[in-house]
Design a protein that fits this description.
The chain is of the alpha+beta class. The chain is 26% helix and 21% strand. It has 14 helices and 21 strands. The chain has helices at 2-5, 53-64, 71-74, 114-117, 175-183, 200-204, 237-245, 249-256, 287-296, 319-333, 346-356, 372-375, 400-411, 415-432, and strands spanning 10-12, 18-20, 23-28, 34-39, 78-85, 88-93, 137-143, 147-152, 166-170, 189-190, 209-212, 221-227, 261-263, 308-314, 337-342, 361-367, 435-441, 445-448, 451-452, 468-469, 480-481. The strands form 6 sheets. Strands 13-17-12-16-14-15 form a 6-stranded mixed β-sheet, with helices on one face. A 4-stranded antiparallel β-sheet has the order 3-4-6-5, with helices on one face. A 4-stranded mixed β-sheet has the order 7-8-9-21, with no helix packed on it. It starts with a helix and ends with a strand.
């Protein structure tokens, strides 16, 4: 919901081009070593304090480049931040950094109010639980485990918006309960594949609902398995390749994900056409070859036909990820590898994978975003290993050449040279296989058929300021929504 409480410096249209938000204009210096942002005048934080360039500078220096999982790389070439006046921010760069403009929305680079965070521990600041933003809706109430209430910002800079008086984010952990709430009109908007995949077509056929796959273009989500390359049999690349050959990704897409995904051949999804490489090592479904590799690695079947056992931890974001773990377990068993599936809550999962590193295989998904530098390379950059920074390098993979390529793409302004660097990056990581790309996911949204909004390319993480209804909202006398 952060995109509803906080505005981004930019939004993204359906073609993923930046459009004005808190920044009304921007320009890159002729040498590519500066980015100047011109901020919107008259914007205030929800507590009435003015939004200024000082907020952007403080957030970049204290949040984005220090504790943000993606932005430590994205803004890594920023050397200084200048604020010549309250409405101008100038980023000085050691090298050109084209990816910055791909990560300036409210999710990619959320600006925090300096006057509420300066001099505090950012991660334990009380305003994390009662956020103060500049966005169209103001935080009102958090009933833990039940709901969060946001109310219309009467001082919002985009005059006349938002259209809704109130938004209630309901906590419904059970997928069947979410489907029922949508079907009955008790909820009107639910993104990120909120219902069992088998129910999507049925709900989309109802007159009061529609199922949409737009608004996810900025995400380019990919599902993958992290192999802990520092532990047990998975230290051997032959074992990792064997496990890849044992998994039928086409069947995974059809049986588990009901077609809301397609087999992935690279960590850079095919939706990123400028960067996706086709001439890369492939690991097609071939269980017989998998058995040969496991034998060659010295892991022969024992008297019980078992070679070794592994633990599988899946991101606890719903039944689809649990069933993915079950599919992998069945696939590995056919080649003599036993797997134990472990479940836990999200904080325990992230600590286990990215902090304690107490796992063998971890199933998760990342957003690749519109530039692999923003969403893909973080899975392979060695500097983040074991620092308990979620959604970074979980495998423990260390390769100086890959680290060098990641550094090089950050500072390369030439589009052709960046493509070549990313092509080499994909070739290496698919040869070493610290992570196994499984699927390119196709998330969907279930929403009321009379809900209207102009879905942008980053809508799933974007603002609700344009949301409105044709006619009454079920169960509400005025324009509020769940």
């Amino acid at each position: 919901m952060s995109g509803t409480i906080f505005d981004g410096l930019v939004d993204y249209d359906r073609d993923l081009k930046p459009i004005p938000a808190l920044a009304t204009a921007w320009e890159t210096g002729p040498d590519g070593l500066s980015l100047t942002l011109h901020l919107r005048s008259g914007v205030t934080w929800h507590d009435g304090k003015p939004f200024t360039a000082a907020d952007v500078k403080w957030t970049l220096e204290n949040v984005w480049t220090k504790i943000h999982p993606r932005n430590q790389i994205t803004f890594g070439k920023v050397t200084t931040v200048e604020t010549p006046d309250p409405l101008t921010v100038i980023l000085r760069l050691s090298q050109p950094s084209p990816a910055i403009l791909s990560s300036l929305n409210s999710n990619g680079a959320q600006v925090l109010p300096k006057h509420l965070y300066e001099g505090t521990d950012v991660l334990s600041n009380p305003y994390n639980n009662k956020p103060v933003g500049t966005g169209p809706f103001v935080f009102k109430e958090w009933n833990r485990g039940n709901h969060i209430v946001l109310e219309r910002n009467p001082s919002y800079w985009d005059q006349g918006k938002p259209y809704l008086d109130k938004v209630v984010f309901r906590v419904l952990p059970d997928a069947a309960a979410r489907a029922a709430a949508l079907e009955k009109g008790e909820a009107q908007y639910a993104p990120l594949s909120p219902v069992p995949l088998r129910d999507a077509a049925r709900l989309g056929a109802l007159p009061n609902l529609r199922v949409a796959t737009t608004g996810y273009e900025w995400l380019s989500p990919w599902l993958f398995a992290d192999f802990n390359v520092e532990r047990g049999p998975l230290k051997d690349v032959r074992v990792r390749r064997a496990l890849a050959l044992a998994i039928d990704r086409a069947a995974l897409a059809k049986v588990v994900w009901f077609g809301f995904g397609q087999p992935a051949t690279s960590p850079v999804p095919s939706t990123l056409t400028d960067f996706h490489a086709k001439d890369v090592p492939a690991h097609p479904f071939d269980p017989k070859r998998a058995e040969v590799l496991l034998d060659e690695a010295g892991f022969k079947r024992d008297a019980n036909a078992t070679r070794f056992s592994l633990d599988i931890d899946y991101i606890p974001y719903g039944d689809d990820f649990k069933r993915t773990a079950e599919f992998l377990k069945a696939s590995l068993r056919r080649v003599g590898v036993e797997a134990n599936i472990r479940s836990q809550d999200t904080p325990s999962y992230t600590r286990r994978i990215y902090g304690d590193r107490d796992f063998d295989i971890a199933i998760t998904w990342f957003a690749a975003f519109s530039d692999p530098q923003v969403g893909v390379t973080r899975a392979y950059w060695s500097a983040s290993i074991g620092k308990n920074i979620p959604w970074t390098n979980g495998s423990g993979y260390r390769n100086p050449e890959v680290d060098g390529l990641i550094a090089a793409v950050q500072g390369e302004a030439d589009a052709g040279k960046r493509r070549d660097l990313f092509r080499r990056f994909q070739q290496i990581v698919l040869e070493d296989l610290p992570t196994l790309p499984l699927l390119e996911l196709k998330f969907f949204t279930v929403e009321a058929s009379n809900l209207r909004h102009d879905a942008r390319g980053d809508q799933v993480y974007g603002t609700l300021r344009d949301f409105r209804f044709d006619g009454p909202v079920p169960g509400h006398s005025r324009a509020s929504a769940n």
